[in-house]
Prior knowledge:
The chain is α+β, with helices and mostly antiparallel strands. The chain has helices at residues 12-29, 33-39, 44-53, 71-84, 86-105, 108-120, 247-283, 295-323, 329-353, 364-375, 382-396, and strands at 125-128, 144-147, 155-165, 172-178, 190-196, 202-205, 208-210, 224-234, 285-286, 289-290.
Amino acid sequence: MGRLCETEGLTEDQTEILKAVRTFVEERILPVATELEHADEYPQEIIDGLKELGIFGLTIPEEYDGLGESLLTYALCVEEIARGWMSVSGVINTHFIVAYMLMKHGTEEQKRKYLPKMATGEVRGAFSMSEPGLGSDVAAVKTKATKDPDGSGDYVIDGQKMWLTNGGTSNLVAVLVKTDEGADSVYKNMTTFLVEKEPGFGETAPGLTIPGKLDKMGYKGVETTEAVFEGHRVSADQVLGGAPGQGFYQMMDGVEVGRVNVAARAVGIANRAFELAIAYAQQRETFGKPIAEHQAILFRLAEMATKVETAHAMMVRSARIKDRGERNDVEAGMAKMLAAEYCNEVVQDSFRIHGGYGYSKEYEIERLYREAAFMLIGEGTSDIQKMIIGRSLLKDYQLKG
Ligand SMILES: Cc1cc2nc3c(=O)[nH]c(=O)nc-3n(C[C@H](O)[C@H](O)[C@H](O)COP(=O)(O)OP(=O)(O)OC[C@H]3O[C@@H](n4cnc5c(N)ncnc54)[C@H](O)[C@@H]3O)c2cc1C
């Protein structure tokens, strides 16, 4: 560990938690990450260890049996975990987003029902907006929930969802669907349901099938799935917050904290890529000296470290703004975009420094190279971040008169 990614002004509790996570990453994640990733194997032992550390309940308030920590604490833990293996941070991220949405928008009954069990990891969350025909354009969701005409008040969900991270291992999925609220805005005709299911694949609840794992380029170990709803019945009590028509806003709020999380993951990957590069550059010799002594390599290392530090600072700032209770759409968008782009540049530079060995699966950088690409897509692509940032700034800087 070097001097990068240090954070000023942390409380004693935050420092202790981070120290424990750092040790866990060194001892329990890094030694096995690349082997498990290549085998596409679910990191069960690592997940059990994180449960013991309390990571599943890190941000859940103490009254619901969690640790009541801030978004910043969470993001710094994610940064450490992604430095070890990004897939592990993916296992906890959708869980964290669903817990956040429940804390922020759930009814008291929903909070009492789910949050204590989420804190222990007994209930595991996934969240589902995307469909085969849409990802960025969330308002185009086609999956529908209609009131059953039998007068029970239950809804029936039909449609197909795509790209559910933790779609297999979760037993609670926050699903965004269309409902007919008679509103003139498409955004107000969308509802988030809390769908319960069994973990696993196949028919995991009546009328809900999780077909199997999608075969991905990277981000292995954690499963990403489709979800097929065919007449899945769900009670009106499972509408997040109790009232339909709020789903779009609830999901966008969830994605906003998710963006801080992806920024943290990107910084973690970039930091690890830098560490690998600076170590390799001192070992590998060409033309009679370590390659670190060639100025082109030295300058590359300096630029990489500067990018890691900048992205870390942006991520920390955006988390602190949200923790103050303020909206952080612009800052989270900036942090996510910059961290993702820098992560890809830093990983590419580390790959170049490794020469031919970087292309070998024996070297960790090969895995990071594939993981970095996902940072450009998850929780909204860089172009979508630019839309969010640009539109919000235009409002702020609107010409007067
Ligand atoms: C491994 C993985 C895990 C995922 N996990 C989840 C999950 O757990 N839950 C979930 O709901 N989703 C998940 N997703 C989906 C992810 O959020 C979407 O893939 C992402 O938002 C992009 O959507 P899309 O793939 O439909 O691309 P599209 O929206 O089709 O975009 C295609 C291209 O067009 C660009 N584009 C689109 N609209 C515009 C515009 N207006 N202006 C300029 N450019 C534009 C995009 O930037 C992109 O370059 C996951 C995806 C992957 C790959």
